[in-house]
From TrEMBL, chains A, B:
InterPro entries assigned: ATP-grasp, Gln_synth/guanido_kin_cat_dom, Glu_cys_ligase, Glut_biosynth, Glut_cys_ligase, GshAB_ATP-grasp, PRibGlycinamid_synth_ATP-grasp
Gene coding for it: gshAB
Name recorded for this polypeptide: Glutathione biosynthesis bifunctional protein GshAB
GO molecular function: ligase activity
Organism taxonomic ancestry: Bacteria, Bacillati, Bacillota, Bacilli, Bacillales
Enzyme class: ligase
Pfam families: ATP-grasp_6, GARS_A, Glu_cys_ligase
Keywords, comma-separated and alphabetical: ATP-binding, Glutathione biosynthesis, Ligase, Magnesium, Manganese, Metal-binding, Multifunctional enzyme, Nucleotide-binding
Organism for this UniProt entry: Planococcus kocurii
């Protein structure tokens, strides 16, 4: 099998950059001073042992963050970032994640390291056996596992480009075996570049300790390795499986997963499955946590590992596999124990490898980040540019522990800075971001099946739910949403079922509408296009209208739509009731953009002050919008005899808009607890009458002090089938109502 | 109460033309020679005694068509027309409806007149008692009942315009009592204008008979009247109720409904309810069937009756109510028995009334059909213009029976002419028209809640279902339709569940897509905008593409949508599977617009011939579309070396389009019985995988002879959430599949 020839095959090349990825990242929970916490795993997170994203590793304080398998590195890092944010915001606000592989200061008595309090007894017993074998301290080391799978298209293309191996699964296994052996041989380069555990903190070492800092304690014999009697041959998959089985039989390993190799062969739940199915993917386990990236691993690192694995496939190996792997172990150990600022003994070899990889990327037409190779050469030239070197340098003025605490604080602050968003998903709607957050927290698998279209797949065990735009779900029937979409139909149905809706008529041509003038002329009424409610073409006549004004309003409305509604105008305040599954989840009152005077500042200054609120932003990226000072606002001020430089009196309220939409700077005020049950019942019953399960229904209420049963106490304006959720979660004033979490629990009632 | 003053009140006038209407129309089923049929009520029609639209009156052959209550005359006639069409097309094609009030030739032995075979015993017993009291012959007379209710707004406005009566229900009763008395007094004018039963057919009269033709046998003592001892006072609602009760007590009437007044007071299921609730509406019962309108009553008649009732409200009555009503009876009897061509003895009075009504319409600003009053004056001047006169005149050359048979045939032909549409609902989608038809036939109440939006409310007993666009229902969840709407999501889900879909990728910018060139360049593939499938911007490369062509196709596609799909091209024929509730209801193959040569005619002539098919029309108003001969068709011919005036050889098939859409003249061919179960199972399972209940799923099948389990035997292109239904009901070739009826039965499983 001439892999070098196969790789440059034109039918192979297009697929080289396609792969599947997954990352696991461990990290200790510490307090704001960098000390290990004594708290349990956060209660906010679903406590299931098989939480797909946030688990406990060896210790109760040791969080393991796990991404799903993704088809691109971008997605991988989007998930990794989001999972970090969910983890941070699920912990106590005074807790943070330790950004190093080596644990923070440990308790003097290792018994005070608390083993993860899992529900599963076997899991606890296994950890107990590890504690007995290796000591608890060593288990507190954290790291990154990088899971990698070549795309099926690539493997198929490679398979077709050769003729020696007849069965595809066997071919695939051979590919991964070669990569694994080569990786084990060359991994010293990874240790050099990305090793990042130069020193340990207090109480890590029991007796013996390291006198000098190194590149990677974790990758050295002092780190997270099996005892010397654990020996596995990589010469073939068969020998690999047989050796591991033998060691378990002999009791040298308690379980398969106790085999801590730098590469683990994956492809089933048990090693024995590999024999049947072949190798499905590999897991690189020798990656230290990168303290200089909030995710513990940078995008560039992940990209390079992919490239490095292609190089491992391309690169010839030596015939004696075991010898080849064994050499690699020695090299890696040597590099791991070098001083972080020392030029490595393998500098020449490393430079050759970098050159070869660069040539290979050109040969295969692979895209790589700019400056990647220059950067590596610099790191080889100047060890202080390596991760270990950098960390060691920074620690000189204080200590590694203090540096780590500072870094952790910075990440902690970033994670809490904008609690209403998921940084890596800000291109999606706020409500969808909330929903992703809540689903992840609850241990529900989230797959984004169409990002542009806000389409999510949520999965808990075998239960799948699809959600679009935050709350379009399987719970509502299609017809219910179509009913809500059509204002005339909504009104007819509500009226037939005895609810009060503004009286009115629909007109499909202007002549007909003009003839109906006398029906409305002396009343308070609204002329509006059928399809838009708070948009263009709406005229309100609070005290009747002249024929000319009536005609003008119709012309305006018919410009917007071929159907126009003329409706009775209802007096009162508009309230949005958010209904889900026959229950009121939140009630909101929306107030037009406004400022409250203090007798000192101008309108312009007051607006600027109000806009300081981090909840206010632009383009629906934040729960509230910044107040604009455009034509409309100036006009509105003028109507009140004010200008931008007027100084309103103390407590004087100036409105800058007529409409109350949050999208034009309005304030959202939660009034759920202020609205009496009778109005809530009307809202719930009306939504039920429409056959809907999730709806934002708008009621005009003349006075919430008056009972709903009073004559004309309320009127229903419309029902919305995709009601905004974020405004209830982050209102301007009043209590937050986490309606996205309610939705998760509605979709997945099996959640406890 | 000065009604004349009240009516001209400005707050009253706008509401005068608002009212609610309902029509009942009886008619005998006859064969094509005009003889009474011996068949039972059509089996196609749900046999329930309380069918809302199509019932049996006295006899099994006597159909009663009932409209729902409507808010406008237009709607009223739309329903009446539709119900007629449903009735006609539910009967045997050799049956039709007799267009006269007087029955066709009756059996010699009146026992051969079959009483309606109702399920309800009481109904049968009541009819038996009528047969005993009046004889079966008399019960065979048919007529129109016109139900009329003033709008609530009008009554409220009138109520406010007076101060004598304090309770609204009482006021309303007084209004209707006045109208009723006046109508009973003046109804002779209606008898004159609209009387239409001049002669009887064979065996109607037992012994005595009429020597001379008259205006209305039905309205005379020879018609459908109670015996003389039935006397009811209309002086107040109380006396009315008391008198009816008394007559039942005495056994003079068997039931309340046996009281055959020209006006019936309505407002509850029993006369006694009137006392409590007041009069709700009135039923005019003295309207003969108008043979010159296919509905048995014309729009103008209905419009005039409304006007006439306003006049009845306006017109003063005499103090002695009983006398006033009694006089009216005598006048009407006199007019009814006048010769149809004789000038009426009340000509002068009639002219005064017409003048007064005309003035009243001007005074109140009411809109009326042009020429209405001129027409009445002509009818008074020339009795041959009245309905009775016209029928009598026409019968001179042959006989009334022959004229009626001719008219009936004409209506029968019209009703069958376009069996794929409901004439009065042709502005709606064909599938919705079918659904209305089927629902009506099944006795489901159909309310059109938004006509423009194809929004129906279907009701059977207490079970309500809403349907939009023919098949958007409560059966599908919102998310299932959103999944189907999004081709990328559909494909992902199907793929995850193991179905074969064309491999492909979605691109959101052209650069990204260009970079992927090598992934597709050597394959058969399609470039298409994400949101439209068979629209613009699609390029097909059956044998790979050059970079230039690839780039061009992307530019085209990105002009249509910001997202573009590049997909593997699948070889084979496309089949549409219509799935409902996990069952295949129909499978259709669509073939591009084409003609088959006969060796004689030119392409142009062949197209013209093919377009003769009454199923072919334009703009989706018919099940198939006419083949166009535009630029595209000419180009397509040119590609085959032909022109419009080429004469294709016998059996040579020439395609005029590349695409197979029915909307561009394609042929739809039902192949349900030709497709094997394994492909059907795939279609059903795939729709289930999407969580959908109603879907048109498109499979490309390489050969239907090859089992579906064969490698790459099929591929799923897309699933449609609002699949066309009419094309399955009226295919170009193959069996009709009445999917709308299946839908009705799916929505209402309680139907037997």
């Amino acid at each position: 099998m001439d892999m070098k020839k196969m790789l440059v095959n034109e039918r192979v090349k297009p697929y080289l950059s396609k792969a599947r990825y997954g990352i696991e990242k461990e990290g200790q929970r510490v307090d704001l001073t960098g000390m290990l916490v004594h708290t349990n795993h956060p209660e906010n997170i679903a406590m299931s042992d098989d939480h797909p994203y946030i688990k406990r590793d060896f210790a109760e304080t040791q969080m393991e963050l796990v991404t799903p398998v993704t088809d691109s590195l971008k997605e991988l890092f989007d998930y990794l970032t989001a999972i970090h944010e969910v983890a941070y915001r699920s912990m106590d606000e005074n807790e943070m994640l330790w950004p190093l592989s080596m644990p923070p200061e440990l308790p003097k008595d290792e018994k005070d390291i608390i083993i993860a309090k899992l529900a599963n007894d076997e899991g606890v017993q296994y950890r107990q056996s590890l504690a007995d074998s290796y000591g608890r301290r060593k288990q507190m080391i954290s790291g990154i596992h990088y899971n990698f799978e070549f795309s099926d298209e690539l493997l198929q293309a490679l398979f077709k480009a050769q003729s020696e191996i007849i069965a595809f699964p066997h071919f695939k296994t051979e590919v991964y075996m070669k990569i694994t052996r080569n990786y084990l041989h060359y991994r010293w380069l990874i240790t050099y570049l990305y090793g990042a555990s130069p020193s340990s903190e207090k109480n890590f070492f029991d007796n013996d300790s390291l006198d000098e800092p190194v590149r990677s304690i974790r990758s050295s014999k002092y780190g997270y390795t099996n005892r010397n009697n654990v020996q596995v041959s990589y010469s073939s998959l068969k020998t690999y499986i047989a050796d591991i089985s033998l060691m378990i039989e002999k009791g040298i390993l308690s379980e398969e997963k106790e085999f801590y190799s730098a590469v683990r062969l994956r492809g089933g739940s048990q090693v024995a499955d590999l024999e049947e199915r072949g190798i499905g993917y590999i897991e690189l386990r020798n990656i230290d946590i990168n303290p200089f990236d909030k995710n513990g691993i940078s995008y560039e690192q992940a990209e390079f590992l992919h490239l490095f694995l292609i190089y491992m496939l391309w690169k010839d190996e030596e015939m004696d596999c075991d010898e080849w792997v064994k050499k690699g172990e020695l090299y890696s150990e040597a590099v791991a124990l070098e001083h972080p600022l020392a030029i490595t003994q393998f500098k020449a070899e490393a430079e050759t490898i970098v050159d070869e990889i660069e040539q290979l990327t050109q040969l295969l037409g692979l895209a790589v980040s700019e400056g990647l190779f220059a950067n590596f050469r610099e790191m080889l030239q100047d060890p202080s540019k390596t991760l270990a070197g950098k960390l060691f340098e920074k620690s000189k003025d204080s200590s590694q522990g203090q540096v780590a605490t500072c870094i952790a604080k910075e990440y902690h602050e970033t994670a809490w800075e904008k609690p209403y968003q998921l940084t890596s998903f800000t291109d999606m709607e706020l409500s969808t971001q909330f929903l992703i957050f809540d689903a992840m927290q609850q241990g529900i698998q989230v797959e984004i099946i169409d990002r542009q279209d806000q389409f999510l797949k949520l999965k808990l065990n075998n239960h799948i739910e699809y959600v679009k735009n935050g709350n379009m779900t399987s719970k509502d029937s299609y017809i219910a949403t179509l009913i809500m979409e059509n204002k005339t139909v909504t009104k007819k149905i509500l009226q037939q079922q005895g609810f009060r809706v503004p009286a009115g008529e629909e007109f499909n041509d202007i002549e007909q509408a003009l003839q109906a003038f006398e029906l409305f002329s002396t009343k308070a009424f609204v002329v509006k296009p059928k399809s838009t409610n708070y948009g263009l073409g709406i005229s309100i006549f609070k005290e009747g209208a002249s024929y000319e004004d009536y005609q003008k309003s119709l012309t305006l409305a018919f410009e917007e739509d071929s159907s126009v509604l003329i409706e009775e105008f209802l007096n009162g305040t508009e309230y949005r009731f958010f209904i889900m599954n026959d229950e009121v989840q939140a009630v909101m009152s929306r107030i037009p953009a406004n400022v409250v005077g203090d007798g000192k500042h101008t309108v312009e200054e007051l607006v600027a002050q109000k806009n300081q609120d981090p909840l206010r932003g632009r383009d629906h990226r934040t729960p509230l919008e910044k107040i604009q000072l455009g034509e409309l606002e100036v006009l509105m001020l003028k109507g009140q005899g004010k200008k931008l430089d007027s100084i309103p009196k103390k407590d004087e309220i100036l409105y800058l808009r007529e409409n109350s939409n949050v999208s034009t700077g309005g304030d959202s005020i939660d009034v759920t607890d202020q609205i009496s049950d009778d109005y809530k019942k009307i809202a719930v019953d009306a939504v039920a009458a429409l056959g809907a399960k999730i709806s934002g229904i708008d009621l005009i209420i003349e006075s919430i002090e008056v009972p709903a049963s009073a004559n004309n106490a309320y009127g229903i304006i419309e029902a919305n089938f995709n009601p905004s959720m974020y405004m209830h979660i982050f209102p301007y004033k009043g209590k937050s109502r986490r309606v996205t979490m309610k939705l998760i629990r509605y979709l997945f009632p099996e959640l406890v």
